[in-house]
Amino acid sequence: MDVLSLFRLDGEKALVTGGGRGLGKEMAIALAEAGADVAVVQRRLEEGEETAAEIKKLGRQAIALRGDVSKEEDVQKTVKAIMEKFGKIDTLVCNAGIAQWAPAEDMTLEEWQKMIDIDLTGVFLCCKWVGREMIKQKKGSIINISSMSGYIVNIPQKQCHYNAAKAGVHHLTKSLAVEWAPYNIRVNAICPGYMMTPLLTLADKKILDEWASYTAMKRIADPSEIKGLCVFLASKASSYITGASILIDGGYTLP
């Protein structure tokens, strides 16, 4: 097998949560470009449908579903619908998430709980229900989208709930990698730094410049720069990698 073919995903089926915009959309399209059919799950269905339409233009199958990853019933129904359509799920990308700035001393319990429910519990629920199907088929790659914030405390923003949730994703990833290795299921995490998603474009330019100055490469990433790593972790090219949390932060965490 030549090296380029190791990255191909022809005939495989993928599920990307939060795949309607931002990094999720980039990864959903990347998986399709590598040959996979893709299911896109998004709370705003119209956004998921836009991504699915772009995937279909590539000659791949695509479906868009509305779902809330923090609700177990939603996750269970979503996975069932995808299995009925595709018959299997080879790759799961747990990308759906939220972010918020809130000083700890002023943070409400509701704000804390919402962050944990979506950014950590939502990852667990998707892994749980897709994992059940992967265990049956004895094959799968799970890619949890964490953050460099699982490693470091970002400044100047205050976001202890977000940082704690992302650190939890790292250890959840390692735990599931150990539990599911006997079933030929690999579980890894991608930990992005600052990427110029639509949400980040709303940030104050002074803050953006400050973040860029802390980064070894002195710039904020284009969202498309996550595509190669996603395909790598989904493909045979990473067949001996599991339990890894891979930073893609331009060197932000190096100093």
Key traits:
7 strands, 42% helix, Rossmann fold, 7 helices, seven-stranded parallel β-sheet, 255 residues, single chain, alpha/beta, 15% strand, globular
Write up what this structure looks like.
The protein is α/β, with parallel strands linked by helices. It contains seven helices and seven strands. Helix 4 packs parallel to helix 5. The protein has a single domain, classed as NAD(P)-binding Rossmann-like Domain (Rossmann fold), CATH 3.40.50. The protein is globular, with a radius of gyration of 17 Å. The relative contact order is 0.15. The chain has a seven-stranded parallel β-sheet, sandwiched between helices.
Q: Could you say what the CATH architecture is? A: 3-Layer(aba) Sandwich
Low-pLDDT runs: none
CATH class: Alpha Beta
Q: Helical element count?
A: 7
Largest sheet: 7 strands, parallel
Structural class estimated from helices and strands: alpha/beta
Fraction in helix:
40-55%
- Strand line-up across the major sheet: 3-2-1-4-5-6-7
Characterize the overall form.
globular
H/E series, N to C? Answer: EHEHEHEHEHEHHE
Measure the end-to-end span: 40 Å
Number of domains: 1
Query: Overall mean pLDDT score?
Result: 97
Quaternary state, please? Answer: single chain
If you consult CATH, what is the topology? Rossmann fold
* Strand content range: 5-15%
CATH superfamily: NAD(P)-binding Rossmann-like Domain
Number of DSSP strand runs: 7
**Rg measurement, Å:** 17 Å
